[in-house]
Amino acid sequence: MDILIVMCMGILVGRLFRSGRIKKVNELLSLACTFVLIFAMGGTLGQRENFVREFLSLGGASFLFFAFPTFFSIVFVYILTRNFMGRKKYETRGKKEMIILFTFISLLGGLAYGIFGFHIPAVSLILKNTDGVLYALMFFVGISIGMHRGILSKIREYHIKIFIIPAGIIAGSIVGGIICSLLLKIPVGQGTAIASGMGWYSLAGAAISELGGAKLGSIAFMSNLMREIFSFFLIPLIALKLNDLTCIAPAGATSEDTTLPVMLKYTNEETVVLSVLNGMIC
User: Fold this and answer.
1) CB within 10 Å: which end of the chain, N or C, has fewer?
2) Among candidates 4, 27, 82, 66, which has minimal Cα distance to 280?
């Protein structure tokens, strides 16, 4: 709820400004916050106890639980939006290669920082206070939405169709979880539980560790973190090859916060609002 309040404050500020220069600066600040958060994700993963050993032993299973649920979410959302929401491919903004490159550098930098145990006071402070960066990010995203006039009236036109995207993501994730269960020969209930995290790695890892043990919890943590991280790479490609609303599919439950600046860069403000609604529902 706090995040949504901060974004609404940004929307109010955005309605006061229409300057192209302010819009450009705001986009750069949004992307900067995104790269800091990606670095923090890498750092959190690298600092995880026994991360290297876990990755070597459980990395294959974690990758499957990222890949299949994400793939089927993309397929289901693309089919549903194409047939019921009439979406065509949206002309992408910016150079996707640069975004992907900086995302990759941020992730590797964070992993190295965590694995090798570096301690730079300013960086460690950011890693411990990522909520502040996230709030700043949502404020900047809110400004971008507020600068775009008539967006709420467009969203109202969808009416009950706003549930199409989360329905496709949830169904695709569960189908992917079932397939992973069959491939890895684990109970279907456990497999679908891991896949139903839909990118929310902190919740999925902790909850499944309690219910199914440390091994399943580690798979849930890593696979859902992979889903969030790889979303930054997939969104530009999906915007280029499929359609704008399908960009929401890989992000899953994370589409309401960390992936929003990349979504805004490669789609439009209307998709960003639908992305926030999707994340809340998922």
Assistant:
1) N
2) 4
For residue 6, the surrounding DSSP H or E stretch is: helix 2-14
- 282 near 250, Cβ under 8 Å? no
The Cα 140–Cα 13 span in angstroms is: 9
Summarised one tens digit per residue, pLDDT across range 177-221 is 999 999 999 999 999 999 999 999 888 888 998 888 888 998 999
Separation between Cα atoms, residue 73 and residue 67, nearest integer Å:
10
| Pick from 240, 210, 214, 204: nearest CA to 96 | 240
pLDDT tier, 126 (very low <50, low <70, confident <90, very high otherwise):
confident
- Contacts with 251 (C-beta within 8 Å, 6 or more apart), sequence order: 199, 227, 228, 231, 235, 259, 263, 275, 279
Q: Please answer whether residues 276 and 261 qualify as being in contact, where contact means their C-beta atoms are separated by less than 8 angstroms.
A: no
Contact of 36 with 131, CB cutoff 8 Å: no
CA distance 252 to 231: 9
**Residue (of 227, 244, 240) closest to 68 by Cα position:** 227
In the chain, the largest separation of any two C-alpha atoms, in whole Å, equals 57
Residue the block writes with tokens 């859902």: 224
Q: What is the pTM of this model?
A: 0.86
Q: CB–CB of 106/40 below 8 Å?
A: no
The helices-and-strands tally (H runs, E runs) of the chain is 14, 0
Rounded to an integer, what distance in angstroms lies between the CA atom of residue 239 and that of residue 250? Answer: 12
250-267: buried (b, 16+ CB within 10 Å) or exposed (e) per residue? bbbbbbbbbbbbbbbbbb
Element (H, E) at 145: helix 130-147
Contact 104, 111 (CB under 8 A): no
Name the residue among 154, 176, 183 with its Cα closest to residue 252: 176
Look up residue 57 and give its two tokens. 């032993």
- Cα–Cα distance, 247 to 77 (Å, whole number): 9
